[in-house]
Write a structure and sequence with these properties.
Layout lengths: L10 H8 L7 H38 L10 H5 L2 H20 L3 H22 L11 H6 L5 H11 L4 H15 L4 H15 L4 H9 L3 E6 L5 E6 L2 H20 L6 H14 L13 H7 L7 E4 H5 L7 H5 L2 E2 L2 E2 L1 E3 L3 E3 L1 H10 L2 E5 L20 H11 L15 E4 L14 E4 L1 H9 L3 E4 L5 E4 L5 E3 L13 E6 L33
Antiparallel strand pairs: 1-2, 3-6, 3-14, 4-5, 6-7, 8-14, 9-10, 11-12, 12-13
Helix pairs in contact: 2-4, 2-5, 4-5, 5-7, 7-8, 7-9, 8-9, 11-12, 11-13, 12-13
Family: Belongs to the Rv1128c/1148c/1588c/1702c/1945/3466 family.
Keywords: Endonuclease, Hydrolase, Nuclease
GO molecular function, one term: endonuclease activity
């Protein structure tokens, strides 16, 4: 029982509801998944109702702020109106946090989300639109269409934008909120924010670079987190160098897992000396191995960005996510970079790869379907097109994925872009060795069918209109040099280690 609310369950009921019965079938699996989906939708709807209650409480507290304060305190009598408002808000947040048994920071985040999404709903009610994007986010949450985590991510993005930009972001991302995983939704938000933001990306990047920093946080069992907040091009280059060092070590027979080798290469580059033999995982030769690798940054640059001028503050350019009249470039297909950085990286690239796309529908124009082996140029094209693994919900970068024939080569499937997709090794094996099946529709979208018969069609991320323009892709861009003086520590999201699955070895396809 919690504050008068009693859950009418006992141990026997819990065990009964978890038992599939003596002879479970695929139907039982499907029915249990259906129940879990229905329960999740009810939870999401209740989270929306909770947000409404929180916003109602915030407004009520604002209306009776004086009753939240100790008017007899001498310090309060001398306090400014802003100080009194702050103290009243703190008193309310503490009351909410203790009632919900949340840390005050988390309760404050809940209040901010409720206020932002309610404001967005009020704004939308004054300017109704058509289509699925016209439904305000708060209404969608109350109907159980997406999770509270999606709502928090959206509110965090909307909070710093003016009203016009908020509407653009909501209309761009809400149609995907119901079937995108949280990482995929955050990627959509980043892109939509960069297109709608009233300040050009080049200007924002210059300001963001001033916040670069490295900081240390303790972790359990004698471990710690070392976090670096860097310009995206440098971060991608660092990750590429230690990843390639890890893969080279694995190919040479090193028994450590790839994640462990990345961490050891990172530490070796910073710490290991020529005579250092110490410690578990401390292998000095990883430093030498990593130093011999020239890091690669994959940047997709619209050709008009290379041909354009300086940053533009034109409203039409901002609405289409452009800088200097051209489309925004991206690192590894997911991190927008400003035009200055894109041009600088391209200038340092020892080679460029041109990807030709149809000017009408954005599809890639390819040829040579008569060979099984995927040519390097076509593989690069697929990585630029797919961005990530094509399995629903997977966000592994396409550059680290296998290329798979949707219709098998032995069944007459040609080696062309329309019959190829990128799959991480885990989902590549899943497709071929389990009951999962995939088919490509005439419009190019994939339909995945699970062993229980559920279908998942297409990708959460719609094709970007910018891909209809010719693009240049640098296949090898060396890490730019940059100094990183100390700065204030930015807010950052802590991430634990990703769950690992055993590498099944080369795909038998």
């Amino acid at each position: 029982m919690r504050d008068g609310v009693t859950a009418v369950v006992d141990v026997a009921d819990v065990l009964r509801r978890a038992d599939p019965g003596p002879r479970p079938s695929l139907h039982d699996v499907s029915a249990a998944i259906d129940e879990a989906v229905e329960i999740q939708a009810r939870i999401d709807a209740l989270e929306g109702a909770r947000l409404l209650a929180v916003e109602r409480a915030r407004r009520a507290a604002a209306g009776c702020a004086r009753t939240l304060l100790d008017e007899g305190h001498p310090e309060l009598r001398r306090a400014s109106a802003a100080r009194r408002h702050e103290l009243a808000a703190r008193a309310f947040t503490a009351d909410l946090a203790t009632a919900l048994r949340l840390p005050e920071q988390q309760a404050s985040h809940l209040v901010d989300t409720a206020r932002t999404l309610t404001g967005a709903a009020l704004d939308a009610s004054g300017a109704p639109g058509d289509g699925p994007g016209a439904e305000p986010a708060l209404v969608g949450l109350c109907r159980g269409r997406f999770s509270m985590a999606h709502a928090h991510a959206l509110a965090d993005t909307l909070a710093e934008l003016p009203d016009d930009a908020r509407r653009q972001v909501e209309s761009a991302v809400l149609p995907a909120a119901g079937h995108a995983t949280l990482p995929q939704f955050r990627r959509l938000l980043r892109r939509a924010r960069d297109r709608a933001h009233p300040v050009p990306l080049t200007v924002r990047h210059r300001a963001a670079v001033e916040k670069r920093a490295v900081y240390l946080d303790p972790a359990a069992d004698g471990m710690a987190w070392l976090t670096a907040h860097l310009p995206a091009a440098q971060a991608h280059a660092i990750h590429d160098r230690i990843s390639r060092a890890a893969r080279t070590a694995r190919d040479g027979g090193d028994p450590r897992e790839t994640g462990q080798l990345r961490a050891d290469a990172f530490a070796a580059l910073l710490l290991a000396g020529p005579d250092d033999g110490g410690g578990a995982g401390a292998v000095p030769d990883l430093a030498g191995l990593a130093h011999r690798i020239s890091p690669t940054v994959r940047v997709t640059v619209p050709v008009l960005t290379l041909l354009g001028g300086g940053p533009s503050d034109d409203a039409d350019s901002r609405a289409r996510g452009r800088v200097g009249g051209a489309d925004v470039a991206e690192l590894d297909g997911e991190t927008p970079v400003d035009a200055e950085t894109a041009v600088r990286l391209t200038a340092k690239a020892p080679s460029l790869r041109r990807l030709l796309v149809d000017p009408v529908d954005g599809t890639v124009l390819t040829a040579d379907p008569g060979t099984y082996t995927v040519p390097a140029a076509l593989r690069a094209l697929l990585q630029a097109r797919d961005v990530t693994c094509a399995f629903p919900g997977c966000t592994r970068a396409a550059a680290r994925c296998d290329v798979d024939h949707v219709r098998a080569w032995v069944d007459g499937g040609p080696t062309v872009a329309d019959n190829l997709t990128t799959l991480c090794r885990h989902h590549h094996v899943l497709k071929h060795q389990t009951g999962w099946r995939v088919a490509r529709a005439p419009d190019g979208l994939l339909t995945w069918t699970s062993p229980t018969g559920r279908t998942h069609r297409g990708r959460p991320e719609p094709r970007r209109p910018e891909t209809r323009r010719p693009r240049l892709r640098s296949s090898e861009v060396k890490r730019p040099e940059a100094k990183r003086p100390e700065s204030k520590r930015p807010e950052a999201r802590r991430r634990g280690p990703a769950p690992r699955t055993a590498d099944p070895g080369p795909p038998p396809f």
